[in-house]
Amino acid sequence: MKSKVFQESATAVSRRFGVSAKALRVYEAQGLLKPPRTISGWRIYRQAEIERIGVILALKQLGLPLKRIATLLRGDGDLATVLLLQERALQDAKADVEEALALVRAARKHLAKNGSLSPDDLGTLVRSTAMTEFKWTPKMEELAQKHYTPEQLTDLRARPFTAEDQARVGAAWVAIFADVAALGASADPASEQALAIGRRARVLIDEFTQGDPALFKAASAMNAEALKDPSTAASMPATQAHWTFLGKVFVELRDHENGMV
Prior knowledge:
Layout: E1 7-9, H1 10-17, H2 21-29, E2 44-46, H3 47-61, H4 66-73, H5 79-114, H6 119-132, H7 138-147, H8 150-158, H9 163-183, H10 192-209, H11 213-228, H12 230-233, H13 240-257
Antiparallel strand pairs: 1-2
Helix pairs in contact: 5-6, 6-9, 7-11, 9-10, 10-13
């Protein structure tokens, strides 16, 4: 007696996996599936196609796009590498969502307290939230590996820098950038207000670099590249204009200390 070959219709497969018949056709169009057809032209799904759909849906659950899934199923890609890249992408997305939630909460708090929220207020909230809710993303790690030496990174990570220290330093930088913004675009970097802001910023920089010029150079280079990259600039607590102004203030401070002013 001839054994019966297991097969299901598109409707049955849709019910089995909870996907639409249209989705199955999309998988077929992308080259992920190639179900055989009956003489009448109806698609049929046998055990091999059923198992392949399970793999496709599992990879989709991981967030992989169909084109990348197709590459993997053809055997042209390395699953470990693909999963690592996907993990980094999801971490970036998670950081973006957390930052957005923090900004929404800060805006609601501001509205409840003041009754209004101007564009300038919102801009300040964006920058302060970026600092207080700053997340170390894979992209930032990539920049750190590029600009710091392995010895510098080892030293930095060995420091006893607690969550309380992070909150303290973050709040101090938020206040500095807010005060820079309050001076206005035409502010004089030699003014007493600007010099006072610069002294506060220099204390924080010295705390981080501990007087090491090489560490200051590495931090400056990483910060500059992060500000140029749109994928990281949006999450930075300050703009290039803030740092350009602070740079002018530091020159004025040095001139004052050297008796040149």
